[in-house]
Write a sequence for this structure.
């Protein structure tokens, strides 16, 4: 009994620490400490004065990642997890350093393999997954740009080798040396260790620099367009899901919902920000794409989470706001303006009839609520 109580107390008091240890923030902290210790371990002065402490810190980080990997493998199917990209990152991060030490590699060199820990930043990262999708989608255009880069690279290096080999046999005495100059010039790095001296070489160098800027501009444009298209696709899917759940939009055909989706404006709102104020005239409704808002309705305020909407009465004919609405956390809202909504209802008569009926019902409820409030305020105490 005493042992069970002691274990219960330990579990209770260490619960916050265990929750922090399982969080992504703890992983980032441990990763930062581990990589900093690895870098410090390569400095001779620090290695002599604090080598034991740095090694202990690195071992603690390694144990943390080993426990984390074991928990991940236990939560998922062990065999399938170990063969997944995330599982391979965990395995390599845990076993690389011990194997190197067992093979006789010196500790400062073996601990350099802790650099693999930085790959953990790629685990469960939606942003990196989006980057991967963009590269896959734009693979053919990027390959064409890379082929253009290679053509300019080899043609320029061969031409510069012919032009400068007699004047500068050192930096341009071979084709590989000229290739180095072409890479440095095409990337506009300009180390200055190999520069042409002849007038024809200067002209060729100028052309190569312009071609390098154009080539990287093409690749940047392709990637930027790909990212923009991927963001539009993701936002469209998210917005479609929200709009299709609105009661008086559910009867619309897909083309009409698509039209509404393109009409919506996105708004990022910080915490404790007033979105709607009671008594003000409204001209739009809001969809909650992410976050939460509080609607101050008497006697009990109501909280609306992701996927819900509010302010729809402004589209139904009752433009005076009846409640204050405030964000309780940083939120992403989608706004549908009254003018766009009227244009949509003009093109869809069935929607207009449904909205008119809904508007009459909502406005009747609001009128009754106002009448009750008026009677309550004038009733004798």
């Amino acid at each position: 009994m005493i042992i069970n109580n002691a274990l219960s107390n330990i579990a209770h008091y260490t619960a916050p620490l265990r929750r922090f240890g399982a969080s992504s923030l703890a992983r980032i902290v441990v990763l930062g400490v581990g990589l900093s210790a690895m870098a410090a371990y390569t400095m001779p002065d620090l290695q002599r004065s604090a080598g034991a402490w740095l090694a202990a810190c690195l071992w603690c980080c390694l144990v943390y990642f080993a426990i984390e990997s074991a928990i991940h493998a236990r939560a998922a199917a062990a065999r399938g997890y170990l063969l997944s990209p995330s599982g391979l990152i965990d395995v390599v991060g845990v076993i690389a350093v011990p194997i190197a030490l067992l093979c006789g590699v010196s500790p400062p060199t073996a601990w350099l393999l802790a650099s693999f820990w930085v790959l953990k930043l790629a685990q469960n990262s939606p942003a990196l997954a989006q980057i991967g999708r963009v590269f896959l989608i734009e693979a053919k255009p990027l390959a064409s740009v890379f082929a253009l880069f290679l053509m300019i690279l080899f043609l320029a290096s061969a031409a510069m080798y012919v032009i400068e080999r007699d004047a500068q046999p050192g930096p341009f005495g071979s084709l590989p040396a000229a290739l180095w100059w072409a890479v440095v010039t095409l990337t506009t790095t300009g180390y200055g260790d190999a520069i042409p001296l002849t007038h024809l070489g200067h002209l060729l160098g100028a052309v190569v620099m312009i071609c390098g800027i154009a080539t990287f501009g093409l690749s940047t444009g392709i990637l930027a367009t790909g990212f923009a298209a991927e963001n539009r696709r993701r936002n469209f899917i998210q917005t479609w899901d929200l709009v299709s759940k609105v009661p008086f939009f559910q009867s619309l055909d897909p083309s009409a919902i698509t039209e509404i989706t393109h009409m919506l404006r996105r708004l990022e709102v910080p915490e404790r920000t007033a979105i709607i104020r009671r008594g003000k005239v409204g001209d739009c409704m809001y969809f909650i794409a992410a976050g939460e808002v509080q609607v101050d309705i008497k006697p009990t305020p109501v909280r609306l989470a992701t996927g819900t909407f509010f302010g729809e009465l402004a589209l139904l004919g009752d433009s005076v706001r009846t409640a204050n609405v405030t964000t309780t956390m940083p939120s992403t809202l989608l706004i549908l303006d009254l003018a766009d909504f009227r244009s949509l209802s003009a093109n869809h008569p069935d929607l207009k009839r449904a909205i008119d009926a809904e508007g009459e019902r909502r406005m009747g409820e609001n009128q009754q609520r106002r009448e009750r409030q008026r009677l309550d305020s004038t009733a004798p105490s």
In short: The chain has three domains: 2-124, 137-231, 264-377. The first helix runs from residue 2 to 13. Strands lie at 265-269, 274-276, 284-290, 292-296, 302-305, 309-310, 324-327, 331-337. The CA atoms of residues 48 and 248 lie 73 Å apart.
